[in-house]
C-alpha cells in the first residue's frame, strides 16, 4: 500500500521584516511548543534548522537542552539544513557556502552530538549547479528544496558540474503544502485525499510527502490522533504517517526502481533580488574578499611564528554568514533590518581589517627593505604570479623633489606616473599619488622603492596629445597595446572597442552605446522586476527584459548629454563623463592601463526617483553568441535573461568574445547580443502578509533616493574561447587589488621578494588559504570545465604531510592520488572539481 508522509516543520526567517532579536523571541516560542508536542505524543515528528536559531535558543533556555537531545536521540526531532542561516546560494561565493556548513554543522556536532545529513534549502531563491558537490563534500546525503524546479518528479538524483550527485526532493506545491488541515476528522480526511491526489503524479515510488509548516508556524496538535484514526480504517486508500524528512527520504529512495538524473542548476526565481538594495551585494563581496585575505595573511604570519588571530576571523565570519540569509541577500528587508545589516558589515569589516593589518605589519617587518628610496611592500593575496596596478601616496618635507620613479627589488624602474596633489612654491612635490605597474609573486610580496627625482623609462606611446574639449570635441581615444577605444564626449558612451591582435570590433556599430546607463520604470517590489511578489513561486522564471531604447518611461544617459574630460598619463588613460539630469547624477570613468588587459569602469550614481531600475548596457557586435556566467565553484552556460553571476559574465562565439567583470553586482543578462548589468533597483514593498510584516515598518530606503552609489566593473575582449582567457583568475584579481604598504628601510630575515604559496599551473584557482587545526588548509578548484593534470602547489617551508579532507576539514579515507616532496605537492583535478588539503 502507498504511504503519504506528513513532514511537520517551521520555517524560520532569521531576519527580514523584523530585527534578529524580535524574530528570535518569536522563534523561541515555536521551539518550546515543538518540544512539548513531541513529548506529548511519541508518534509526532518535527524538523528544525539553522544554528543561528538553535544556538541562541539553547543559550536562553539551557534547561531545555536535555529535552531537545532526548527528542533528537529518539528520532522524533530531526535537525536539518546544517547551515548557520538558510543562505542565498547564487550571489555568495562557494567558500561562503562551505563556511555556512562549517559553522552550522560544527555547532550541532559539538552541542547536540549529531552530524546533520539532510540539506534543507526550502526557501532559498534558486540553487547553483555545484551544490551537489558542495553538499556531498560537506557530509550530506539528501537535498530538500522548494524553489525552483519544473519537472514531473519530486525525487531524483541531482548531478553537479563535476559529476557528483545527491538524492534530491523537490516540493512541487511548496513547503506549506499540508498547512491549514481542518481540525475535524471528516474535513481532515478530505484534505488529506486532495493533497495526496495532487502530489501523487510527482512521486515515482509508493511514497508521497507533504510538508506542513510555514513561517514561524507551530505544531498542529490534531495531526497524531487524526493519523491514527485514518490508519485504523480498513478501507483507507493509502497509509498515513508523520515523519521526519530523513524517514521519508530513506524510504522513498530505497523503494524507487529507477531514479531519474537531473543535471545543471535550478534557477532563476525572484530576479529583482539581484539588484534590490544593491549595497548588500557589494558589501558581501567586499567582506568575502577581505576575509579571504585576512585568513591567508594570518596563516602566513602564524607559519613564521606570528600571532594567531583565528578567533578574530571566526568572530568576523559570523555577521557575514548571518547577512547571507536568503532574504537579506535578496534585499527584501525593512529599513530597520537594513540598518542592522549595515552594522554587521561594519563589525565584520573592523575585525577582518584588524587581522589583516596586524598580519601584514608583522610580515613586512621581517622583509629586507633596504635600498635607495622609500620602501613599498606590494602584497599579492592570490596564489599565482600576477602583473597589476598598485597605488601609494607619498609626501616630502623638503622642497627639492621634482619628479618620481618606482623601481622593483632588482632596481629596475617600472611603468609609473605621479599625480601631484600638492606642490611647494618652487614647484617641488609636497604630496603625490603614485600609480605603477607591479609584477608580484604568488601569495607573497615584492619590495619596490620610490626614487626621488627619478624618471620612469616607460613612455605612453599612445598619448594623442590633443586638447580635448578644444581641438577635439567629437571623439576621445584611449589606447594601449591591447585595445583601441573610442568614446563619444557628447553621450558619454564607448562607440568602438577594437582588439588590436585581431582587429575585431566588439561594439555594435548600429547601436554604438557601450556603457550606456538605462533607467527603466519598475513598479515591482524587491523580489520581482515590474511586478509584485508571487510568494509561492517555485518554477523557473522565463522573463527576459530586453533592452528597448524606444520604450515609454525608459530614460537613456545618451539623451541627456554632459561634460567630459580625458587624462593621458604614462600608465593610465582615462575618459570621464559627468551628467546631471532629472533622474539623478551620473559620473562615469573609463580607464585603460599600460600593460593590463582590463578596461576598468567606475560609475557613480545618485538616484532621484521612485520605482525605477538602472542597468548598464553594452550592445555588442557579437551575434548569436553563447552566454557563460561564473557561479560558486564553477561556471555555466545560460540562455538569454536575467541571472545571478559572481565575478564575471562572458558572451562569445567561436573565435572571440567579450567578458564583463563586476564587483558585487550579480544581476547579469545578455539578450539580443546586448550585455547588461543591473546596477540598482529602486523599489520597496508592494504587498505582503505574514512573517512579521507590518506596512508601518518603513522600507522607504529601498527607493535609494539621494543615496550615493559607486559601481565598479570592467570589460575584457578576448580572442579564442572563454576557457583560454583565464576569466576566473582575472575576476579574482579585479576584486583583490594589490596592496602597497610603505615601510621603513631595514634588514630582515626574509628576502625582498618571496612567494609563500603558489599554484604553478595557469588554470586552477584557490578559494581559501587558512590556518586550520595542525596545519594550513588550501582549497583548490578547476574553473573552466577542463581536467587539470599535474597541478603543483609550491610552499616556502618544508612539508611534513599532506592530507586530503572533505570541505569541512575531515580527513578522507579514500582519495585520488597526491604526491609530495619537501617543498610542494602534486595532484589532478577533474573538470569543476574542488579539492581540499591540509
Structure report:
The structure is a single chain. This protein has 13 helices and 45 strands. The strands form 10 sheets. Strands 23-24-25-26-35-32-31-28-29 form a 9-stranded antiparallel β-sheet, covered by helices on one side. It has a 6-stranded antiparallel β-sheet with strand order 22-21-27-34-33-30, with no helix packed on it. The chain has a 5-stranded mixed β-sheet with strand order 4-5-7-6-10. The protein is globular.
Give the neighbour order of strands across the main sheet: 23-24-25-26-35-32-31-28-29
Radius of gyration: 29 Å
The major beta sheet can be summarized as: 9 strands, antiparallel
Shape: globular
Percent range for helical residues? 10-25%
User: How many helix segments?
Assistant: 13
Kindly estimate the percentage of residues that lie in beta strands according to DSSP. 25-35%
Write a compact overview of the structure shown.
The protein is α+β, with helices and mostly antiparallel strands.
What order do the helices and strands come in, and which of them pair?
Blueprint: E1 3-8, H1 20-40, E2 46-49, H2 51-60, H3 65-74, E3 77-80, H4 94-112, E4 118-121, H5 131-136, E5 142-145, E6 155-159, E7 165-170, H6 185-199, E8 207-212, H7 223-232, E9 239-242, H8 245-255, E10 261-263, H9 278-303, H10 310-323, H11 326-329, H12 335-365, E11 374-380, E12 386-395, E13 404-407, E14 416-423, E15 429-440, E16 444-452, E17 476-479, E18 483-487, E19 494-499, E20 504-505, E21 516-521, E22 554-556, E23 563-568, E24 572-581, E25 584-593, E26 599-607, E27 612-619, E28 626-631, E29 634-638, E30 641-644, E31 648-653, E32 656-662, E33 667-671, E34 674-682, E35 708-719, H13 727-735, E36 739-742, E37 753-755, E38 757-759, E39 765-772, E40 775-781, E41 788-795, E42 804-805, E43 818-820, E44 824-829, E45 834-837
Parallel strand pairs: 1-8, 1-9, 2-3, 4-5, 5-7, 6-10
Antiparallel strand pairs: 6-7, 11-16, 11-36, 12-15, 13-16, 14-15, 16-37, 17-18, 18-19, 19-20, 21-22, 21-27, 23-24, 24-25, 25-26, 26-35, 27-34, 28-29, 28-31, 30-33, 31-32, 32-35, 33-34, 38-41, 39-40, 40-45, 41-44, 42-45, 43-44
Helix pairs in contact: 9-10, 9-12, 10-12
